């Protein structure tokens, strides 16, 4: 924790685990803030039942969403051969996203999937060799694997692969592929357990990764009775394929996107975003 003269407080946390669960981190952070505010909370216990994931895809080979790296020792961050830079922007769902995806009756617009499809397509236009045909999707488990009154990983790590050029695909085609992403948690868990912690792997940026934090209540935490006016999320130490994080803005009709890519690609990707209306020209 870092306390500032303006009475602000910064809280930082690091972990070295392939299956690092950001959703449980935010859950724990919100509980911690309640404790600081003097509220009484219920502290769940660690589950004593089998914590291994049930494999929903027994025919799937080795997971594509992780990558073994050279030993990092006590550094915890993998050295990169490319300089990675971040760019953050807000967008309005109705104005900047709806034009890219046809409305289907009363169906709710899959905001994260559309955003991932638009960004994936535009990065593919810039990154021609090799084109990112495989991406990783990181999001909250829709079935919520946490047992009652216990703590368990609730983050889903999935892989999406297409065989045709992404830059030429429609956003709708990419969205449908993302919706059929293959859950790879069981394979990752097995690899992590088999090496007994002696090998180092990365998930974020091993392949171009998209992380959906839309379901996390980033404004739940209250300090001195006040909620955050704005929230910024990013992940450091990622692989060279890059990471896109999508999360809620203070206004319900908006989303925030934090994108981390190789420096040589960033300006060209932003230029593509301007052409398709994702960011202002």
Automatic annotation (TrEMBL):
InterPro entries: CAT-like_dom_sf (IPR023213), Plant_Fungal_Acyltransferase (IPR050317). GO terms for molecular function: acyltransferase activity, transferring groups other than amino-acyl groups. Gene3D superfamilies: Chloramphenicol acetyltransferase-like domain (3.30.559.10). Belongs to the plant acyltransferase family. This is BnaCnng44950D protein. It comes from Brassica napus (Rape).
């Amino acid at each position: 924790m870092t306390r500032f003269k303006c009475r602000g407080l910064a809280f930082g946390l690091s972990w070295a685990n392939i299956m690092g669960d950001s959703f449980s981190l935010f859950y724990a952070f919100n509980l911690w803030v309640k404790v600081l505010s003097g509220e009484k909370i219920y502290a769940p216990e660690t589950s004593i039942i089998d914590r291994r994931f049930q494999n929903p895809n027994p025919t799937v080979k080795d997971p594509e969403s992780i990558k073994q790296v050279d030993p990092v020792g006590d550094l915890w961050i993998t050295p990169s051969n490319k300089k990675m830079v971040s760019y953050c922007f807000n967008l309005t769902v109705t104005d900047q996203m709806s034009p890219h995806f046809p409305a289907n009756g009363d169906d709710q617009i899959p905001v994260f999937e559309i955003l991932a499809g638009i960004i994936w397509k535009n990065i593919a236009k810039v990154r021609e060799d090799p084109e990112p045909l495989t991406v990783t999707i990181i999001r909250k488990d829709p079935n919520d694997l946490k047992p009652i009154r216990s703590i368990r990983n609730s983050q889903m790590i999935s892989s999406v692969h297409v065989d045709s050029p992404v830059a030429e695909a429609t956003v709708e085609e990419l969205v449908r592929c993302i919706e059929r992403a293959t859950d790879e948690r069981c394979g990752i868990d097995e690899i992590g357990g088999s090496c007994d912690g002696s090998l180092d792997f990365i998930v974020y940026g091993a392949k171009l990764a998209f992380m959906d934090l839309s379901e996390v209540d980033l404004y739940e935490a209250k300090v001195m009775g006040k909620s955050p006016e704005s929230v910024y999320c990013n992940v450091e130490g990622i692989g060279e394929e890059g990471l896109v994080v999508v999360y809620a803005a203070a206004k319900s009709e908006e989303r925030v996107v934090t994108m981390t890519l190789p420096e040589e690609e960033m300006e060209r990707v932003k230029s593509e975003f301007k052409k398709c209306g994702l960011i202002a020209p």
